[in-house]
Amino acid sequence: MNWINALQVAIQYMEDHLLENMTMEQIAAQAHISPFHFQRTFALLTDVTVAEYIKRRRLTLAAHELLQSDHKIIDLAFKYGYDTPESFSKAFRRQHGIAPSEARKNSNAVQSYNRLVIQVSLKGAEPMKYKIVEHPEFTLVGVKQTFSYTDGEHLQGIGKMWQEAWTSGTEDRLFELNKGDIPGLLGVVVDQSEILEKQMQYWIATTYDGEVPEGLSSFTMPASKWSVFEVEGPMPESMQLQWKRIVSEWFPSNPYEHAYMPELEVYPGPNQPPQIWIPIK
């Protein structure tokens, strides 16, 4: 429950500073986790990015003030973080379906996005298959790319990366190189924000022990304890659903914490269910 409380503190911080230029570092610090992991957890729980949540809340408050006061639209634009009335009107119309001037003139209904309250999901009808594994240090080889995780930009890039790995034959090559007790292909998420601001690294790799093959890179995974979850159902929807259940159901109900090392998605091969490996402590 501690991490749920930490997220609530971070949400309250956002609410208290909606009219200020908050940084992601300031917000994540309230939850005592890195900006990368805060944004990842927030998006999994809410299906919206932190930046989008802040924008929706500001435009909700702006609409309320527009309808309840006679303040000039230009003044509201500046108050809620927009450089020009035009940019404010464009964002306002995108959210509320009507221009600010029209909303005030006709007292039309506007969209209200209320303050988030994160709660533990009390579900138990569908069991989650998992096991706890202690694994020594191991080496991966594969291909990697760096993405911005601002506004979820990395999600589209990772999808293209997998498509390129399939069409280029990289997937087949990595399957053939696989050596180790984690079979198949791995999707590895590595937080790079301490080196490159708002950046993450994604690997398509396999376990391997030996000289790094030409054209590939290597990465050493430290020894850790892992919680390993099976993923059942059609992909990729079932993978995303399992991630959400892990965050919203499993962690709040178990005594483990995320160790904040790279996470793994494991694809063993045909007729074998994928897995999610999360480092725990």
From TrEMBL:
Residues 8-106 form the HTH araC/xylS-type domain. SMART domains: AraC_E_bind, HTH_ARAC. Keywords: DNA-binding, Transcription, Transcription regulation. It comes from the Bacteria. This is AraC family transcriptional regulator. It comes from Paenibacillus xylanexedens.
